[in-house]
Each structure stands twice: as C-alpha cells, then as structure tokens.
C-alpha cells in the first residue's frame, strides 16, 4: 500500500531500532547532525538536514488512507532526531497528534547531549504530546574509549540525560557495542558500561556487536575481538548489571539473540552464553560479523 504514493517515500538510508518494526517511520531529519563516531557507518557521506514542516505535512497528507488516521506508533528518524530542539519537536508532535487520532506513542533517536539541551518542563510537555521513549547510544561507559571513538559526551552526561528523561516520564532504551574497544579496552569497556547502566537505570538495555560496515578505518585501528572474546565481554556485562532493565541482544549484528529482565534472568542468560562458549574452536576464534555485515 505504501508504494502507491507518487513521490519519494524516504530519503535513503533509513535506519530504525528492531523494536520499531511495526511503527510508521517519519523522517524529521536526514542523516546525523554529529556524524563524528568513527565506529558508525550509518550516515557517512550523508549531508545532514532538518526536513521542513511543510514537507512533513505534505508527506503525511499523502500517506494512503489505511495509514492516515490509523498509525498508533510513530518512530522519528534519522540519526539523532532529538537534536532539532524543543519548538520544532513540539510542532511535529502536535501535527502527529492531529493527523493520527489513535496515536499512542512516539519514539526517537537521541544522544545524551541532545537531551541535555532541553529544559525539564520542555521534556514534560513533549511527554504530554506522547513522546514515549528515546533510543540512546551509550556505546560504552568508558570515557577514554568514548574519546577514542569520536563519540561526543561522557558517561556522566549519559547519567544526567537519563535522569532528566525519567523525571519527565519518558522511557529510555540504551545500546552499547560489544567489541568496541578491542582487546585493549575489553575489561574496562565491560566494567564501565555495566556501571554506567547501573547508574543510568534505563528501561531497556541492548547490546550490538562491532562489525564491518563503513567503519573499516576504525576497525583497523583496534585489535578486534574474536567471537569468544565478544561472548566473554558480554558475560562480564551481564554479570555486573544490578539495575532492573529489559535486556536484549536482538540486533542483526549479534550472533546470539538473548532476551530477559536483568538481574532476575541473569542465571539463564549466563547459561545461554556459557552454552555457546562450548562451541567449536573454529567458530569461537573467528571475527564477529562473518555471517553477514549490515553495519549500524
Ligand atoms: S553513532 Fe549516532 S551520533 Fe554517532 S555518528 Fe552514528 S548516528 Fe550519529
């Protein structure tokens, strides 16, 4: 049905979190306003722009009737769409509420620095307009590794940003990347990431795995982990998480799809990790991503 529209449906590329498979994706920006992260090939070569309101309204008006008035879940793309600022985001949420009478929840990609640019009362107003959850890339809780990767901000910014969201009643879904620091950082990466998650207390916490995809220069600059080392890193993170969070490894970059609530399901999840750690040496000594590379 979507293919019947007579204009380009999306500015490519389009990315969305796995959990937003059933949501209507509405692009409010194109690319990533930061685009400094050396491990991320998502928007390399894409010129950043904020799409204007008239275009978005025109786009929404031309959606087939089955979507118009029927969308309950909307995901705002691209990269860190929350960078658009309060007045603009309020305008877009107001528009979505007007267009989709059954709208229940709107979700968005955000960086901690973007969130810290909002006032507490602004976040509360966005929540009242159904901003339900922000997807945030922590990547690692290790500040030295963050710097090395070119990701802006710190573990402390992350903690403050999550506290602001929580105060406003907006949920958080956080990701970090297994193997991000290679062999040099693996211990600190796992320990500091678990510590940052414990302090930040996200509602959802997911792990991706570093694989090739527009980030070859960064991968060449680290001593990449083997599959075995990735699982050992994963194991250390799972062992250390004490905050209550829904945990998943459901991204296409992961070899093993895990799901549960931490810390309640810790023993089962560790058992599943230990089971795969008994696989063949040939499998465990390989580089992650050998089964297919999608980037982030
Ligand atoms: S990781 Fe996020 S903030 Fe960094 S370049 Fe990629 S999309 Fe932008």
Account of the 3D structure:
It is a single chain. With 296 residues, this protein is of the alpha/beta class. It has one domain: Alpha-Beta Horseshoe (pyruvate-formate lyase- activating enzyme). It has helices spanning 53-61, 86-99, 112-116, 120-128, 143-149, 155-168, 182-200, 216-220, 227-240, 266-276, 281-284, and strands at residues 24-27, 29-30, 49-50, 73-77, 105-110, 131-139, 171-178, 204-209, 245-248, 259-262. The protein has an eight-stranded mixed beta sheet. A two-stranded antiparallel ribbon has the order 2-3. Strand 4 (73-77), helix 2 (86-99) and strand 5 form a beta-alpha-beta unit. Helix 2 runs parallel beside helix 4. The radius of gyration is 19 Å and the shape is globular. Residues 292-296 have low confidence and may be disordered.
Sum this structure up briefly.
This protein is an alpha/beta fold and 296 residues long. It has a single domain, classed as tm_1862 like domain (pyruvate-formate lyase- activating enzyme, Alpha-Beta Horseshoe), CATH 3.80.30. 38% of the residues lie in helices and 17% in strands.
Keyphrases for this structure?
single chain; 296 residues; alpha/beta; pyruvate-formate lyase- activating enzyme; eight-stranded mixed β-sheet; two-stranded antiparallel ribbon; disordered C terminus; binds iron/sulfur cluster
């Amino acid at each position: 049905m979507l293919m019947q529209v007579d204009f380009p449906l999306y500015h490519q590329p389009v990315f969305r979190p796995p959990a937003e498979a059933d949501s209507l994706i509405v692009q409010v920006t194109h690319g990533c306003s930061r685009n400094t992260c050396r491990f991320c090939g998502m928007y390399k070569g894409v010129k950043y722009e904020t799409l204007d309101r008239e275009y978005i309204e025109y786009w929404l008006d031309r959606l087939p009737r089955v979507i118009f008035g029927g969308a309950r879940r909307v995901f705002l793309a691209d990269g860190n769409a929350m960078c658009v600022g309060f007045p603009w985001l309020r305008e877009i949420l107001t528009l979505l509420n007007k267009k989709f009478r059954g709208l229940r929840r709107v979700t968005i990609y955000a960086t901690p620095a973007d969130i810290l640019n909002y006032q507490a009362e602004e976040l509360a107003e966005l929540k009242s307009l159904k901003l339900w959850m922000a997807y945030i890339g922590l990547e690692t809780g290790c500040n030295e590794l963050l710097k090395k990767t070119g990701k802006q901000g710190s573990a402390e910014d992350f903690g403050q940003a999550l506290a602001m969201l929580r105060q406003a009643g907006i949920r958080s879904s956080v990701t970090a990347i297994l193997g991000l620091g290679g062999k040099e950082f693996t211990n600190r990466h796992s320990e500091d990431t678990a510590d940052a998650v414990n302090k930040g207390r996200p509602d959802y916490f997911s792990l991706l795995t570093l694989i090739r995809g527009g980030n070859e220069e960064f991968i060449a600059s680290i001593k990449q982990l083997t599959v075995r080392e990735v699982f050992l890193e994963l194991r250390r993170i799972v062992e250390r998480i004490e905050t209550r969070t829904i945990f998943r490894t459901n991204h296409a970059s992961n070899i093993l799809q895990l799901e549960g609530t931490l810390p309640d399901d810790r023993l089962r999840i560790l058992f599943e990790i230990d089971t795969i750690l008994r696989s063949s040496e040939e499998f465990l000594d390989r580089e992650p991503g050998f089964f297919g590379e999608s980037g982030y």
